[in-house]
Specification:
2 domains; globular
Length: 234
Amino acid sequence: MTVQQIKNELKKHANTQYAAHHQTFFKTQPGGYGEGDMFIGVRVPVIRQVAKQYKHLKLDAIEELLRSEIHEYRMIALILMVNRFVLKSTNDQIKETIFNLYIKNKDTINNWDLVDISAPHIVGTWLFPREKDLLYNLVKSTVLWDRRIAIISTMYFIRQNEFDHCLKISKILLHDKEDLIHKACGWMLREIGKRDINVEEKFLKKNFKQMPRTMLRYAIEKFPENLRQTYLKG
């Protein structure tokens, strides 16, 4: 069971049309948020299926995949890490090793899909019963993906009905210049609203006038239409 075997298996499912689409969709052109990223054109459900075949891959091999220049190789590495992390049989020592591997290589987790499939399951889960200092360091980073990891990791907290850190981080990011951060914060606020709309509204009433429009639209997407229009009209 080797890294090359996994790469060969993924290459069997590669599609040049998908690859060309992904190059555009994930903004890999010069100046885009995914500048320089490379795709071979394998869809996510296929990557997940291949990951099941290699669930016992050693962590050093997973790290090698995670350091790859090919997007799908990095994605399968993250899926393998998540799948192992969430197993009931995985002890805290292994979970900590996976978490540290993730943070050590976070520079390779450099597009929104890679963050979103991994951060809640690894970073959020590990930090939930522990100190959250790392999230507040990440949210101050000049690196877009660090900040997205910070906010998306709070998805795990939200699922446990713990909203404070999501609200605090969203507050810090109110004036962020990146649209991908606006979308992420709005999404997390919407998730809070699904569980307790009063908590979300309390935050919105204090902050909606200074929120980026995209963040607000994402946050109120599921509101009743009359209430949604009230916020949009200020």
